[in-house]
């Protein structure tokens, strides 16, 4: 639940509890509170209204609410027979505090939460002398044991529920971390294999050009010089990719896997054409992408491919715009759609794809930003730098 929506719900709950506590104090099943009505309303507000902030500051809110309920009970500003209403805000605050507190802190919170009514409710009954015998007209049993028992039970249930929620969140966070680590490892393995193809292509080109230069060195010096220039550029690019490969690669269980030639930015029109459908219009703007280094072109292709896949699977969009602009040593990528934005299902299913995109961009020292658009839809923006030393022939 979003914090803003949760706060609105807490505000409505706090207002309702303020009303119930005040009216129960002024018109309870047992002996009524004889003091000023304003005091009853002030006590109800002091106990219930802090709940508005329980999602933001659960521990301080619990302390304030529990103290206010204890003071109201000890001074008799409660409704005999329905004292449990005074402690309902404490129940909600205790749940929130138990869901975020550590093990020792949660035990201390539970002890304080049980001690407050455990002391004040019996003290109130003994001080006032209220009992079934002194108030036979009461609409509810007036035994402090009953009132205290009900309060203690719901407080214990709230604390237990909060601890279970914390335990479940811890399991989910641990599972998410494991999935993220696995996704990063898989993506690095995939990147390493793709770079393996690029390096293999570069070495093959070097071998071909070296053979050509060796055969025509005397007859055609100009073509020999061009072949040597190609060898120089290609070898520089191969060395760059090998360095990145050593940075990224941790293990490769199948280094001999046969893969198709790696796609690049020039293949984006074909990709867009394949993914375009009657329900989704995709506009592609491509500028300067033909001059990208092979590895950078592959990264651009994969980022656009993953972004479009997420749009098709999760966005329910009717229009998508893809912008790829290269120049001045940097390629800018932007994919926007007019769909639903970051819905929970999209967030859950596309999370590993976003990890893969970020891993690719980080490898080149670039940046990646993903977020919902104010006018609706989702946006992926990446910037990847490259240098002349990386360019291939």
> What Rg is obtained from the alpha carbons, in whole angstroms?
34 Å
Helix content: 55-70%
Low-confidence stretches: 250-260, 343-350, 389-393
Biggest sheet character: 5 strands, mixed
Averaged pLDDT: 79
How much strand?
5-15%
Number of strands: 5
Cα end-to-end separation: 54 Å
Overall shape: it is: rod-shaped
Helix/strand order? HHHHHHHHEHEEHEE
Structure classification: alpha+beta
Provide the spatial order of strands within the biggest beta sheet.
1-2-3-5-4
Helix tally? 10
Count of the separate structural domains: 3
Short characterization:
This protein is of the alpha+beta class and 393 residues long.
Topology:
Layout: H1 3-26, H2 37-48, H3 58-75, H4 84-100, H5 103-128, H6 144-216, H7 221-248, H8 268-275, E1 281-287, H9 294-315, E2 319-327, E3 330-337, H10 344-363, E4 367-372, E5 378-385
Parallel strand pairs: 1-2
Antiparallel strand pairs: 2-3, 3-5, 4-5
């Amino acid at each position: 639940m979003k914090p803003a929506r949760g706060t609105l719900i807490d505000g409505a709950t706090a207002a309702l509890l303020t009303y119930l506590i005040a009216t129960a104090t002024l018109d309870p099943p047992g002996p009524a509170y004889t003091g000023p009505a304003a005091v009853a309303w002030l006590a109800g507000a002091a106990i219930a209204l802090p709940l508005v902030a329980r999602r933001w500051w659960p521990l301080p809110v619990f302390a304030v609410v529990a103290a206010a309920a204890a003071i109201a009970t000890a001074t008799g500003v409660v409704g005999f027979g329905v004292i449990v209403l005074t402690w309902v805000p404490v129940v909600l605050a205790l749940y929130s505090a138990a869901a975020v507190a550590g093990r020792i802190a949660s035990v201390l919170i539970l002890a304080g939460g049980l001690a407050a009514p455990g002391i004040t409710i019996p003290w109130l009954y003994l001080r006032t002398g209220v009992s079934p015998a002194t108030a036979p007209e009461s609409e509810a049993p007036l035994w402090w044991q009953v009132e205290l028992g009900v309060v203690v039970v719901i407080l214990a249930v709230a604390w237990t529920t909060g601890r279970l929620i914390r335990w479940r969140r811890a399991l989910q966070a641990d599972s998410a971390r494991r999935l993220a680590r696995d996704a990063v490892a898989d993506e690095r393995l995939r990147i390493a294999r793709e770079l393996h193809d690029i390096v293999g292509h570069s070495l093959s080109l070097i071998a071909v050009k070296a053979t050509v230069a060796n055969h025509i060195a005397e007859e055609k010096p100009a073509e020999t010089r061009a072949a040597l220039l190609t060898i120089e550029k290609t070898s520089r690019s191969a060395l760059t990719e090998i360095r990145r490969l050593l940075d990224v690669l941790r293990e490769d269980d199948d280094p001999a896997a046969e893969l198709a030639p790696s796609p690049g930015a020039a293949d984006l029109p074909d990709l867009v054409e394949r993914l375009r459908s009657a329900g989704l219009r995709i506009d592609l703007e491509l500028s300067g992408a033909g001059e990208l280094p092979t590895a950078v072109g592959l990264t651009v292709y994969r980022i656009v491919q993953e972004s479009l896949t997420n749009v098709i699977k999760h966005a329910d969009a009717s229009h998508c715009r893809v912008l790829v602009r290269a120049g001045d040593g940097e390629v800018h990528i932007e994919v926007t759609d007019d769909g639903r934005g970051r819905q929970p299902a999209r967030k859950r299913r596309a999370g590993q794809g976003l990890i893969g995109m970020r891993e690719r961009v980080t490898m080149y020292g670039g940046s990646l930003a993903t977020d919902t658009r104010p006018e609706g839809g989702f946006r992926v923006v990446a910037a990847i730098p490259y240098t002349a030393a990386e360019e291939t022939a």
